[in-house]
Amino acid sequence: MIPRMKPAGRIALAAAVFAAGAAFAQQYRWVDEKGRVQYGDVPPPGAKDVRKRDLRAAKPEPAPMPFELARLQKDFPVTLYTSPGCKEPCELARAALNRRGIPFREVQVWDPDTNEELKRVSGATEVPTLVVGRSVQRGFEQGLFDALLDSAGYPREGILPPRAQKAPEPPQGYVPPAAGETQKPVAKPVAAETPSAAGRYATPEPGEPSRRRGAYSVPGEDAAPQTPAPGR
Fold it and tell me: Cis (ω within 30 of 0) for the bond into 45?
């Protein structure tokens, strides 16, 4: 069971984000005697590297990552597995993470190596797949995505500023299907899966097929042929 963030931790995280945003409203930036970057309306005597900021033209500097968020990223890193040919479900998954302001790593699954990596961490080759720490959600369902992130202690939507992380460029060497050609095997939805006794977010055993609604097969991973039963 992933521990939840305590209410005090959520408040501290929100306060850190607010303080970082407030710094952008100050006119001056300088370095104090301890080497720390400070912001304010008037720099104190002895301040070093004093810079006046043009708030009308200058873009805000990246806010430092709040400590609690940095700790969560270290303990429960977030990885989203997609593929170049996965459109709507992968876009919805990416947008869900961006709305909550959660930094994440996106891995495109498109060749034998990335297929093997996804199978190793999730037990299948379906996209989108969300991995939070060691917990896995195959297929996009908003409620299950939120529950997985909540369990890890990530702030709920509206606490962190939204992100705008875009889909990565197709990998070098990836060849999309030609016009009118269908890339095989065709990605297809699978039926909903009933959570097992091991827990809602237990990682399936390697080779176990996923039946969670909304999951899509990754192109390049052919299903194993079925041997017909002998006739009577």
Answer: no
- List, for residues 140-181, the tens digit of each pLDDT value: 999 999 999 999 999 999 999 999 999 999 998 888 877 655
Whole-angstrom Cα distance, residue 187 to residue 25? Answer: 48
Supply the DSSP symbol for 184.
Answer: S
Give the predicted TM-score (pTM) of the model. 0.55
Residue 131 contacts by C-beta under 8 Å, 6 or more apart in sequence? 78, 79, 80, 81, 121, 122, 137
Take residue 155 and report the two structure tokens written for it.
């702030």
Task: Report d(CA 131, CA 114) in Å as an integer.
Answer: 15
Residue 19: how many CB atoms within 10 A of its CB? Answer: 12
DSSP letter string over 3-48?
Answer: PPPPHHHHHHHHHHHHHHHHHTT-SEEEE-TTS-EEEESSPPTT-E
Please tell me what DSSP assigns to residue 55: T
Spatial neighbors of 144 by CB under 8 A, at least 6 apart, are 137, 200
Class of domain 67-167+183-217: alpha beta
What are the domain boundaries of the chain?
Answer: 7-52, 67-167+183-217
